[in-house]
């Protein structure tokens, strides 16, 4: 990943393996920091790329894309989440100065609200968690920005709610946003069309 000379002819290398990094103990701080920046960029772009890959397979190889997912050993639910976010943002609307997770935080919103919140996050230098707090604060305060249509009350067992909360936590989002994402993904699979603005 990172080759730089060390004391003349020696080469200091961070080796990337399938199960992690092999980092030499003699690495300098600047080299270690640079490696982290590169890894972060690769991780972030890989979520977009895997989402786009799944979307393409769903459309082009309808009868075979699940077999391809199994053959490459990727988790289908994770890929579906990536694809849901990728489907929510055309390539031209993706912000390369914000993370995939920033986009995931607002993916359930209508496109004009997605753009507004992503613009605010970029302008103010918000982390993903800060973006989440801002969006949630606007929703909870009743201020303009997101309209919430009343939904039917659901009666579910506490065990189900606990399971859903755990799933939402594992994806780094609120229960409400996780539920919306799951419903939107299910609707897309049934209807075959993304939510329009």
Describe the protein's architecture and organization.
The protein has 197 residues and is mainly α. The protein is built from eight helices and three strands; from the N terminus they run βββαααααααα. It has a three-stranded antiparallel sheet with strand order 1-2-3, with no helix packed on it. A hairpin with a 2-residue loop joins strand 2 (10-17) and strand 3. The longest helix has 32 residues, at 29-60.
Q: What descriptive keywords fit this protein?
A:
197 residues; globular; 3-stranded antiparallel β-sheet; single chain; 60% helix; mainly alpha; 8 helices
Condensed summary:
The protein is mainly alpha-helical. It has eight helices and three strands; from the N terminus they run E-E-E-H-H-H-H-H-H-H-H.
